[in-house]
Amino acid sequence: MISPETNSVIDRAKRVYAERLQADLEAEHRDRFVAIEPESGDYFLGDVPAARNDAAKRDVPGSQ
Questions:
Q1: d(CA 25, CA 4)
Q2: What is this structure's pTM?
Q3: What are the angstrom distances between the C-alpha of 3 and each of 6, 27, 29, 47, 62?
């Protein structure tokens, strides 16, 4: 089961994607994976989920 806190992070990231990133990312980076840091709006792209996660871990202190 997903915690309410996790659901809140997911919802915020979805909003950032829909409101700020979707048009550009779908036009320029189709078929890539994205991880979104919902507080800052920073995002990380990868060709496979693990690559995107590795980029996020390198650039966001304390991310898991």
A1: 28
A2: 0.74
A3: 5, 33, 31, 28, 20
